[in-house]
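HOLO CASE FILE
Compound: adenosine monophosphate
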Amino acid sequence: MTLRFGVPNKGRLNEKTIELLVKAGIELGDDIGRKLYIKASNQDVEIMFVRAQDIPEFIERGAIDVGITGLDQVAESGYDLVDVMDLQFGFCRLSVAVPEGSPIRDVKDIKDGSRIATSFPKITKKYFDSLGKNVSVIVVSGAAEIMPYLGVSDYIVDLVSTGSTLKMNRLVEIGTIVESQAAIISSKASLEANKAEIDEIASSIYSVLRAENKKYLMANVPKSVLDRVEEIVPGLEGPTVIPLAGNSGFAAVHAVIDAAEVYRVISELKKIGAKGILTMPIERQVD
Ligand code: AMP
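Model generated. Tokens follow.
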């Protein structure tokens, strides 16, 4: 049976999600951005482009089998869905913020009856209920930051990543309700019915995520200093050393290294006389 996979059709998670799926080997052709759904040409997967915030609802109802959305959306839906895998992008947090001039600097000091504008009414209500506070939640569909300025609310609950939007709107973050990032989401029922297919896509995506922070390194190293290479280049299982035809003084060293280590490794290899140093991107890392 075709696996129905929900992908954000626009917004912050859209581009990176499509990039991940394509890198994971799901061929989507040239119609991305024009079609509402695309059948992958090489796998039994149909990609449905829907709003990130609708994905939990569609999974709960069985309209789609699996999807990628923010964990904040899953929390707001209130459904007991399964986080199959965190995807290490779309990091943000749902926070309580107050106007700069407000004397309130701790959520505990927010008074009963305060008006809080948010597009996350369910989690907001649950959060303040858990603090024993009876606040008035004002539902907006966006631009919550402007609501205190308009006099619509006293405080806001909104998504923050760098904090620069809050700052621009002269708001101060005083508490975090939930931390979020993009994730592969499914339901218990769908996982039971589609476990093999979902596992396969998740492990392809995992191999892409792992490879994103890695580089493949090659260098020709004087044989006399090969023993130094292992400390400079901590590969996955130690570097691979290959003899070089016709050049008895050097051996080729190949290794997978963290992208963050490239600068250090190259400069240390140069110091011990390495030549022909190359680094290359890795598409996937599969164990
Ligand atoms: P969209 O409203 O379609 O742009 O998607 C919003 C989703 O992107 C949210 O539900 C979050 O999971 C994620 N996201 C990541 N960083 C932020 C941010 N700074 N502001 C809003 N949403 C963010």
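CASE NOTES: Residues 87 and 209 are 8 Å apart (CA to CA). The radius of gyration is 25 Å.
CLOSED: yes
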